[in-house]
Amino acid sequence: MKGLYFQKSSTDEEITFIFQERENLPVIEDNYVKVQVKACALSQINTKLLAEMKMEKDFFPVGREIAGIVLDVGSKVSFFQPDDEVVGILPLDSEDPGLCEVVRVHEHYLVHKPEKVTWTEAAGTIRDGVRAYTALHYLSHLSPGKSVLIMDGASALGMIAIQLAHHRGAKVISTAGSLEDKQCLERLRPSIARVIDVSNGKAHVAESCLEETGGLGVDIVLDAGVRLYSKDDEPAVKLQLLPHKHDIITLLGVGGHWVTTEENLQLDPPDSHCLFLKGATVAFLNDEVWNLSNVQQGKYLSTYLKRCDGEVIKWSL
Question: Residues in domain Enoyl reductase (ER) (predicted)?
Fold first, then answer.
């Protein structure tokens, strides 16, 4: 049985993908589940994070978001039994690649797959689904009537976040990085309150949001990255598509929540003082937050998928 792995060169400039023959999986341990993989998503491999967490090794398994059928369970497994259909995210330290016929995984990294969701849809959207649900439910406490700015709404994360926000009765504003993205967002139903086209670099996100909210500002911002420095110090592409951090602070309403994906966010004392005056909060959306606690991951996955079972999410790939 073969599995796909990648190997970094000594200079870290090249990555080589190879198939390695794997021995038969060992006897299932107490809390582990053996899963026959039906679908696996290919997400970006964060080599920087692996190095920071001292998890570097010669060969790294490829593919972590999986969907499949339970073949066997350990003696202490309480949530699953053979023939159950499951979906989950393999942990960073997993020795089994998702791109393999069979994997062995702790039960806390899996949840039951909703019956109406296909294998490819489950594996392809579970990561961004958990990210969106974490951002809106746990980090910003979304509730009916709130206004939400979702940056880059046509992305996988943005599309799911928009649908979750609409499901909770929120007013959604979004940005589009191209004409195609803008048209895609304008076709969504329920419709988005305003789509801000930032593709030409001329749109003022802060002004548009303040105008849409009657000058009050938005309650929640989910960004897709921000500019930290002046125009002279930023790449041209980043200048065009991303708002400056000052714009985000300006458009936030009183008591607002800013959920950022910018891991190197730097706030100067005037920025912090402005956030203090608004009583606003800043939260970081860490892509790997579910790896910090496998018990908490199972809670996130289960809660998110329960909402998807009633076709709340359209599972856009």
Answer: 10-301
Report the first-to-last Cα separation within the chain, whole angstroms: 29
In a domain, 192, yes or no: yes
Evaluate whether residue 146 is within a structural domain: yes
Q: Are 1 and 24 in contact (CB under 8 A)?
A: yes
Residue with tokens 């159950």: 84
Which range of residues forms the domain containing residue 197?
124-284
Query: Residue 18 carries which side chain, given as an amino acid letter?
Result: I
| 3-class DSSP string for 223-237 | CCCCECCCHHHCCHH
Q: Which residues of the chain have pLDDT under 50?
A: 293-297, 311-317
**Tokens of residue 270, six digits:** 């005037």
CB-based contact 175:221 (threshold 8 Å): no
Closest by CA position to 24, among listed 90, 95, 102, 106: 102
Using an 8 Å Cβ cutoff, are 31 and 58 in contact?
Answer: no
Task: Summarize pLDDT for 188-223 with one digit per residue, the tens.
Answer: 999 999 999 988 877 789 999 999 999 999 999 999
The model's pTM: 0.82
Examine the domain organization and report whether 279 and 132 are in the same domain: yes
